[in-house]
Specification:
The protein is mainly α and 544 residues long.
Length: 544
């Protein structure tokens, strides 16, 4: 619950950030360049940050805490911090020197002024990434001590600084043409660096209190530190493979158009909300507990792992399935309610819907797959997720090229629709990876994962709810008529927005969608739906 609260707060602030960003920059050329530039130093953050430390550091550190070996746990924490600070410092310096090469690799579609702006922005942004990596170390300490709230609330500070930068500087620069937009993105880059430092700084006092003796050193003398490094290699490679997949999507989108690139990154912000809120929250909370369980006998440890994986995967599926259906049926209203303001108009919201449709296909697989990967990390087996990540990326690259760049032209579709096929491709290969992870996990600890028949019931309930919401949406359109001055891109009556503001339209459709989903899933015997109704009934005084 604490992880969920922290992630929810962080994601809500992230949505506010994206809305303010969209207001001042929309899908302008400078917006696409800034978002692509931010991805480059984020590669370093993702390579050495939360995901890697969760797979290498937390299992060892949490197991030492479970054994009550506080002295060795403190030595491991200090050595990992020292090694991480050294590696990050070197990588930041090299990254700043090699920025032009990174820009050409990540966004090959940038030329001339776009490329020059990207190089300037990346060089400003890179130092901030080092602070985010150290912030991930703090998260590892806090989570292992079951202090979940602060570590996931810390990114709120990062978002607040960026929002403040946009609000203070946005009005001064958005009316001056391209040069003014570029100046705004440079100010924004400095705001990102300041926010990164503060995200790290707010966690440090609590971390220092939890550590008995903190001595940052660069040493491999401890066997536990060597175990962290042994896990670190495969996890880094696994994260690198995943980052390669993100690079492929960004590179392909930049070849389609600037609008496709910026919309892809807007879409990722939206569809990662349920992934983070349910998948990351459950996985982050379960990983230290699964790691502690491995300190017990094998039979008992495997039984606890199965119990936690089963319960976690059911919770994830129950909440993520309707999230995917909402993106599929109501994606235009979702994107409009969250982002439609200023320079981000109704046409941009509808275009973003196509990308969210593709993302909805693999949403459940992506979130459940995180939990399965965490189980392998708890078992100190990071190589299996690495192997399957390689399979996923290899398949995804081929599919992305075929679906996003080759297929639209052959079908006579607008080139910009290729961005929607990018998210669709990622969703398809996510199911392949998750299936492989589950099969291997079953061979190691026994039957785990979602029970047979649960997903069909959940998807059935979500589709019924989605159709009801779609009928409400069409009813509003017929009653109030389309918004004046708004055309329909790529046809279809379902794409005509009602006269209602997107926020009101989303509320008018999402509420019946949610009620129908919970009612139908409860009628189909899904225990989680019954539990929700009982909790609501108790709150309303209708049930004990």
């Amino acid at each position: 619950m604490l992880v969920g609260i922290g992630i929810l707060a962080s994601r809500l602030m992230g949505l506010v950030r994206e809305r303010v960003f969209a207001h001042y920059l929309g899908n302008a050329e400078a917006a696409a360049v800034f978002k692509a530039a931010l991805r480059i130093p984020n590669f370093l953050q993702n390579l050495f940050g939360e995901g890697v430390l969760s797979g290498s550091f937390i299992p060892v550190y949490a197991q030492l805490l479970g054994k009550k070996d506080a002295d060795e746990a403190d030595r491991v924490a200090g050595a990992v911090f020292g090694l991480l600070a050294l590696a990050t410092g070197v990588m930041v310096a090299l990254g700043m020197l090699a920025t032009p090469l990174f820009v050409d690799l990540i966004a090959p579609g940038f030329e001339g002024g776009e490329r020059d702006l990207a190089v300037r922005l990346v060089r400003i942004l890179f130092p901030g990434t080092g602070f985010l990596v150290l912030s991930a170390w703090c998260l590892g300490i806090l989570n292992s001590h079951r202090r979940f709230l602060l570590s996931y609330l810390a990114p709120v500070v990062w978002n607040i600084v960026i929002i403040a930068t946009l609000l203070v500087m946005g009005g001064r620069y958005t009316s001056g043409g391209r040069a003014a937009e570029e100046a705004l993105t440079e100010w924004l880059a400095y705001g990102v660096v300041l926010g990164s430092f503060l995200q790290f700084a707010v966690q440090v006092p609590t971390v220092m209190r939890l550590l008995g003796r903190f001595r940052p050193v660069v040493s491999l003398a401890s066997a536990s530190v060597r175990q962290v490094l042994k896990n670190f290699g495969p996890v880094v490679l696994g994260r690198g493979v995943v980052q390669f997949s993100a690079w492929v999507d960004t590179a392909f989108a930049s070849l389609i158009s600037n609008r496709a690139l910026s919309s892809l990154l807007y879409a990722q912000t939206i569809y990662l909300i349920p992934v983070s809120l349910f998948g990351m929250a459950v996985s982050a909370a379960e990983l230290p507990e699964m790691a502690r369980a491995t300190a017990e006998g094998e039979a008992q440890a495997h039984a606890k792992l199965r119990s936690r994986i089963d319960a976690g995967s059911r919770r994830i599926a129950f909440w993520v399935v309707p999230s995917a259906a909402a993106l599929l049926f109501l994606g235009d209203l979702v994107s409009g309610a969250l982002l439609q303001t200023g320079r981000f108009g109704a046409a941009d919201s509808r275009y973003l819907w196509y990308l969210l449709m593709g993302a909805a296909v693999g949403l459940v697989a992506s979130t459940v797959g995180r939990l399965y990967a965490s189980a392998f990390y708890a078992l100190k087996d990071p190589k299996t997720p690495l192997r399957y990540a390689i399979v996923r990326v290899a398949m995804g690259t081929v599919k992305a090229w075929f679906l996003a760049l080759w297929l639209p032209e052959r079908l006579g579709l607008p080139r910009e629709l290729g961005a929607a096929f990018l998210t669709l491709s990622s969703g398809i290969v996510a199911w392949v990876e998750t299936t492989l992870l589950r099969r291997k996990l079953r061979s190691m600890v026994g039957p785990v994962g979602l029970p047979a028949g649960l997903l069909p019931r959940l998807y059935g309930a979500a589709v019924v709810g989605g159709l009801v919401a779609l009928a409400v949406k069409q009813g509003l359109t017929g009653l109030l008529g389309p918004m004046p001055g708004v055309g329909v891109e790529w046809g279809g009556g379902l794409l005509v927005p009602p006269r209602l503001h997107p926020v009101l339209g989303l509320l008018a459709t999402a509420i019946p969608f949610g009620v129908v989903y919970f009612a139908v899933s409860a009628a189909l015997g899904v225990p989680e739906a019954g539990a929700v109704f009982r909790k609501v009934g108790r709150k309303l005084g209708l049930a004990r």
